[in-house]
Each structure stands twice: as C-alpha cells, then as structure tokens.
Design goal:
Largest sheet: 3 strands, antiparallel
Length: about 280
C-alpha cells in the first residue's frame, strides 16, 4: 500500500512513502506516472502561475483508490475467466460421458517407470507430506514475523481441507474402478482433494514467494502451475479420480485461493491505515 506521493516542481524530486514489502516494480510504475502527469500539467501552465509544490495530502487519496481498484480488477478478471472455463469443461465432460474414455486413453501411457514417477508426484498432495509442508511454511512465516501471511495461509489450508470434505460428503461420488489401483485411496471421489488442496496450498505459497521475489515472479508462477497440474494429472494416471473430479477441484480451489488472497490484501490495507509503517523513496 502506498500512503503518500508528492512532487516538487522546483527541484524535480518525487517522494513516495510505502510499506516495506511493496513491490519495487509497482513503485517504479507509480513514479513514471507521476513524472508524466507533472510534465503534462506543467506544460499547460504559464511559468508565473506554476505552483511551487503539490501537497502530498491532495494526491494521496487518488493514488490509493486507483491502485487498489486497478489491482483488484486485474486479479479478479482472469480468475473469473479460469473458473468459468473449468466449470464449463467439467460440465461438458460429464454431460457427454467422456470421463471413462479419457481415463482409458491415459491408461495406455502406463509404464513401470512412469508408474513410479506418478506415485512420487501424487505423494506431494498426500495428507502426511502436505501437512509437513504446511507446518514448515507456517513456521517459516512466523519466524520471519509475517503474521498476516501466516494467518492467511492457515485459513487457506484449513478451509480448503474442510470444504473438500464437506463437498465429498455432499456429492458422495464413487471412485473409478476401471483397473486395479497401485496406491491406497479412501473417501469419495468428487471433487479431487489432491487437486483442490494443492491448488490452495501451493498456490498460496507461490503467491507469497512472488511478492517476496518480484524479479522471479514469472518463474515462480510457472513452476507453481506445473506442480499443481502434475499432481492433478497423477490422479488421472493412477485411475483414482474422474477427470471431472480434478477439474472441479481446481475450480473450487481457485475460488477459495482468490478469496484468501483478497482477504490478505484487505487486511494489509486496513492495518496500514490504522498503524502505518512507512518506508520512503526520494528521487
């Protein structure tokens, strides 16, 4: 969150006050816009009437509101599009009865080496390893005094597991029985817990890492997506979930992940207004 942004017409300096964890790319973008706005406004005024200094309070509300609205829209639009696409895909597969056909086609890919690889990948979404990953990440956040992120992550993980359990009990869908399993499974099939919980847990981790290391944001996002998709595909390869289970798990997980991210952003904005810890940049 940016609290103040002001420009001195005499010296050409620009002052920005912001939180320590604010993205450097966003700061650079803001500075560029302030300079461009100053140049346009300065050219339109005669030299004698040009103001010496713009008070920071006069432009602070504009910066805050525009930044918040633009970030919210840019995040929600692709999420809504992805959720719609996943929901439509699951509905079409179920309506046309393609679940079995897809699983039987995937079965043709089976080899002993690929079997071992898929068992290893699916273990990343198993409760024991997932619990260990969650506890380690939570402890790391608390150690680094990222209390809000730790709260958000805990809420995201517990909420995803609880919601998945409730949905399984609601739909009571049996698992596929097209061939013998090579892993142990229990509970119902819809939606896939591996797909849904991995979307939330690993997605939340990737989001935090992308904020911590904005210069590697694309690489972090790519690796996170590959990991989540690989876990979902492993469930299909092993024959323990229908394709619609996995797609629905991704869709619900994406919505819950987005809700948690929005909650964190709202709490960050709220706490900053009450007790701001400011950093300053003067250029």
């Amino acid at each position: 969150m940016i609290f103040q942004a002001s420009a001195n017409h005499l010296t050409g300096n620009v002052l920005v006050l912001f939180q320590p964890d604010f993205s450097s790319n966003a700061i650079a973008w803001l500075l560029q816009n302030i300079v461009l706005d100053y140049q346009r406004g300065h050219k339109q005024l005669p030299p004698s009437t040009a103001p010496e200094f713009i008070p920071s309070k006069s432009i602070t509300p504009v910066v805050l509101s525009n930044t918040t609205i633009n970030q919210g829209r840019s995040q929600l639009i692709p999420v809504a599009a992805a959720f719609s696409a996943l929901s439509l895909g699951a509905a079409l597969l179920h309506r046309n009865g393609l679940d079995s056909s897809i699983l039987l086609a995937i079965q043709k890919l089976h080899t002993p080496s690929l079997d071992r690889l898929m068992v290893g990948i699916t273990s990343l979404g198993e409760p024991p390893l997932l619990l260990l990953s969650c506890l380690t990440w939570e402890a790391l956040l608390l150690y680094r005094r990222r209390r809000l992120q730790a709260t958000t992550f805990g809420m995201a993980a517990v909420g995803a597991i609880s919601l998945n359990y409730l949905l399984k009990e609601l739909f009571v869908r049996a698992r596929p029985a097209l061939w013998d399993y090579i892993i142990n499974v229990n509970h119902y099939s819809f939606p896939s817990g591996h797909a849904m919980v991995s979307m939330v847990v690993y997605g939340c981790m990737g989001y935090s890492l992308s904020k911590e290391f904005p210069q590697w944001r694309s690489q972090i996002f790519t690796l996170t997506v590959i990991l989540i998709l690989a876990i979902g595909f492993s469930r299909l390869y092993l024959g323990v979930h229908w394709p619609t289970d996995v797609i629905a798990g991704y869709a619900v997980g994406l919505v819950w992940l987005t809700a948690c991210v929005v909650y964190e952003a709202f709490q960050t904005s709220k706490s900053a207004e009450i007790n701001p810890e400011l950093h300053g940049v003067l250029v």
